[in-house]
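Standup notes
- HV: blocked on the assembly model, inputs below
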Amino acid sequence: MYDSSRHNPTHGPIGAMSARAVLSSELGPKGSSRIGTLRSDGPLVLRKSNPKGPEPLAHRRPDVARVALAAGTAGPLGGDDYALDVLVGAGSTLVLQEVSAMLVLPGLGGAGSHMAISVTVEAGATFIWLAEPIIAAHRCNHRHDVRIALAPDARMILREEMLLGRHGEAAGDFASRLRVTRGGAALYDQQINFGPGSDGWGGAAVLGKNRAVGSVIAVDPDWSDAVPAALPYDTNAALTPLAGPGVAIGAVAPHSLSLRHLLTRGINELGPPWAI
Amino acid sequence: MERQAALLLLADGRLPAGGYAHSGGLEPAVTAGFVADMAGLEKFLIGRAETTGLIAAAFAATACARAAADDLSDLETLAVELDARTPSPELRKVSRDLGRQLRRAMSSIHPHPFFAALGTAPHQPIVMGVAAAVLGLGPRDAALAILHENNSGAAAAAAKLMRVDPFDVHAILARMTTRLDALAGRAAVAAEGAPADLPSPGAPLSDIAAEHHRRRDVRLFAS
């Protein structure tokens, strides 16, 4: 059971939570992937799961490890500091699912919240993570930091979606960074900032009047010779090849549902085995 | 003595380095109907300065600091890091086209062995940083030069793309001077850290619009 008095009692505002969950997968003796470590911590609850719906790369495959991340409490709230460490062991395939969207809320006294997700994908391994939206509620102050370190022959697909406040609500301060490296070299590094504390994001160079922004990053070593060609498939979405064997699908939209449609269209443009 | 005239030379839009052929993403934004008036133009320019502008400034400042220390060993890493911060292949190409032209201009105007070491298609901010160092300028100057060049280039394009009063456009540029100074300061601080930690604020609509623009038959500007 989570003991909130145990974590960093001398740090942060009263009631703030600090949590570190750990997840790993490994290749079993019969060639199936299995869960190695599954350590939940308070608000970050990890559970074995079944397929939630169509999955790129792993559709209907019984030999992959599937884990769902669920929220054990509301939040993160201002002052909270969450960390999730993921290791996708050599040759294994891990599907990380999320049970629901993450609503980022303000805390007492306006302190900032922070969530750091670090993923290492080892040689020959595959990581599939179609995250649910992060909603930056009014007056939140949140930093989200996702770092993915891929082995040169690792494969990956991940989706991130961010919503500028709940329905009819102005967004709080939000900064999210996604950095993907391959063999130690940078492949993709983008930060999205919005909220009253940042400038310019409402202009036509960044998000315009849109209330939802997201991306899908797919990396496949088989693309080393030929990355899929650039394809601007909607006024508000484009599939773009990166400088290495990966693609970024970027989209903005007026709301969550239209963003999800645009990103799914982008994934499907990649064809099998990515299409869902 | 502080080198001010060299900074003016480097940031001058009349430097024959090809910048006039680009609208900094304004033409695609106007074509798509996203920028229709002066308020929209100002928001567009601020958003650009705070995202791709800050990235360019940080990379120029870092390249300048390294070149000033006679150490070009990080330049390849900087190119990889800048590629990673530029999801649009069209914008990576524009950056390298402008870099190639700036390198050619500078190696003719003010020859220095560093310009040959940059390779055939270096990114524009990296050339700007090296050029600033060669002219005796510092990282903050390099950042300011590229921020000003990119911002005034896009603003100048507004006169050709929209019905605008040029005084109104320059009023926006005047209001943005404090912002550009602050961004240059942030870029210079970032230049003291590792290339992996340089800022990476994205501009999704710019990336998407650049890919649409490349495919358009009728356009005034290359980007």
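- HV (later): unblocked. Residues 19 and 52 of chain B are 16 Å apart (CA to CA). The mean pLDDT of chain B is 94.
- Next: hand off to the docking folks.
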